[in-house]
Design brief:
The chain is of the alpha/beta class and 308 residues long. It contains 11 helices and 13 strands.
């Protein structure tokens, strides 16, 4: 287990910041850490990195107590939300210098820059980089020493859709091929649905959920609704068992996927094709992780109170 944190509690200056936080991440997993602003996500990361010491609870990294263990933290790569650089340096020079803090590069700098999509800009001063390019450089910096555990805070901020997809593919390959464990802290629920095998949701300094997305959706009976544009009139008498027909609006058919399939509905769409549904478009409407998140963090209630 790369991270084994149980019932962590932290007081700072007489204020309870973390009340009961547990987090479990194994090699090859991508774990999504979610929660509203102020829920305790950044503090949890700081605690994992040894910047704070928990008042109560148990914490192990790589099955070892992390306290004052410098060698242990050298196995971790970190990308903070706001990454600072020496902007007068080129990306090439910066990564070579930074790698020196860990004993040198484990792969050629050109190869590292290619991984994050900066192969054509290695000699360019960082001061000329866009926000998205700095995000890519921050990820390259986190990878420079070949870590076994990556902790990433909003890694796709500032990236266009193509850039987000490229970073997604890189993270999936790191987890699948190199067995790197990745802790992903983000507000982008689409990133979590595509990447994460497990998620943890924090609210007001405590866990409100932890597990795989199908498990959590099933436990909270949170289905997901879609609208499908259908060619012709399909046979709706024998539908897949995980799909419920809600209503028809012209060419659009509104359906709901059962909680057990809400995280990955691809099999339902395949079943519909077998049943003769000739759909040309599929649009998600609501439900799934977004609904679960709002339910568990109280955000939906807060919005209703503001409206009232």
């Amino acid at each position: 287990m790369l991270i084994d944190a149980n019932h962590l509690h932290l007081n700072l200056q007489g204020q309870t910041i973390l009340e009961d936080v547990s987090l479990h991440l194994a090699a090859g997993e991508i774990y999504g850490l979610l929660g509203p602003n102020g829920a305790g996500k950044s503090t949890t990361i700081a605690l994992l990195l040894g910047l704070y010491q928990a008042d109560r609870g148990d914490l192990k990294l790589f099955d070892t107590e992390p306290r004052d263990n410098v060698a242990l933290h050298r196995r971790i790569g970190v990308m903070p939300e706001h990454a600072g650089f020496y902007e007068w340096m080129s990306a090439n020079d910066y990564l070579v210098w930074y790698a020196g803090l860990y004993g040198g590069l484990l792969q050629p700098v050109d190869s590292l820059l290619q991984q994050v999509g900066l192969e054509a800009t290695g000699h360019k001063p960082i001061s000329q980089f866009s926000r998205g390019m700095k995000q890519r450089l921050g990820l390259a910096r986190a990878l420079v020493h070949g870590p076994e555990l990556l902790i990433l805070d909003e890694p796709t901020n500032g990236l266009d859709p193509r850039g987000r997809r490229e970073i997604h593919d890189l993270l999936l390959s790191l987890a699948d091929e190199r067995r790197v464990g990745i802790l992903l802290c983000t507000h982008l629920l689409d990133d979590v649905e595509r990447l994460c095998s497990r998620i943890g949701i924090l609210d007001r300094g405590r866990n409100v959920a932890e597990g795989s997305l199908p498990e959590l959706l099933g436990a909270n009976r949170s289905g997901r609704r879609y609208r499908l544009r259908i060619r012709g009139v399909p046979d709706n008498q024998q539908l897949p068992p995980d799909l419920k027909l809600l209503r028809r609006d012209g060419d659009w058919w509104h359906v709901e996927i059962s909680p057990t399939m809400a995280a990955d509905p691809s099999r339902v769409w395949e079943d519909l094709l077998v049943h003769g549904w000739q759909y040309t478009e599929i649009h998600a409407e609501s439900g799934g992780l977004e609904t679960l998140y709002l339910q568990l963090t109280g955000a939906a209630t807060d919005k209703q109170e503001e409206a009232a």
